[in-house]
Amino acid sequence: MYTLPLFPLQLVVYPGETVNLHIFEPRYRQLLREAEAEGTNFGIPTVIEGALRPLGGEVRLAEVVNRYPDGESDIRVVGSRIFRILDFQREAPGKPFPGGEVEFIEPDLEEDPGVNHQIVELTRAIYRKLNIERLIREADAGFTTYDVAHHVGFTLEQEYMILTLTDAATRQQFLLEHLLQVDPRLGEGRRMLERASLNGHFQHLSPPDF
Question: Which residue, among 82, 43, 45, 78, has the nearest Cα to 62 in the 3D structure?
Fold first, then answer.
C-alpha cells in the first residue's frame, strides 16, 4: 500500500499523457504548493455523476505555467501509474485536501501492432471527415491506445472503462469496436470536435464536495 494525496475530478488520466488544469480551490492550491516544494506526486481519481470511482491516475507536476495574483494557477501534469483506492480520506491527516491508501496497477502495454494500425487508420479517417487536424503517431512509432482514448468521442464513462481494461488485447478490441460504429454526424462526432477545440486549454474542473 502507498499513501497518496488525492485530487478527485470528473476526469480520466492515462499513463504518459499530459493534462492541463486550472487550480482555484484553496485546498488544492495547498496540494499544489506541497507537490511543487517537495517534488511529490498526487493522484487524480475519477468522479462520475458525483460518485468516486475506485481507479485513478497518479500524476507528477511538470510545470506551473501561469500564476495569478489571487493564488490560482495553470499547471501541466503528466500521468504515470494507474492506482486503485483502498481507503479514501476526505481529508488527509493534517491536510485540507483528500488522501488515501492506494495500490498501483501495472497495465499490459504489449499491444498488437496490427490492431493498432487499424485503430490509427480508422481514427484518421474520422478526423478527415470532421476536418480535425490532430497528429497521431504511427502504430510502429510508439502508438498506444491511451494516445487517442480522449479523442475518439468516448463519454466519460467509456474513457474510465479504458482505464479499467488493463489487458492490452481487451483494451484494443474495445477501442476498435467503438471506432467501427462511430457516425461522425452523431454524438461521438460532436464530442470529438469539442475535444479538438480544447487543445491546449487549461481545464477548469470543479472538484466534488463529498
Answer: 78
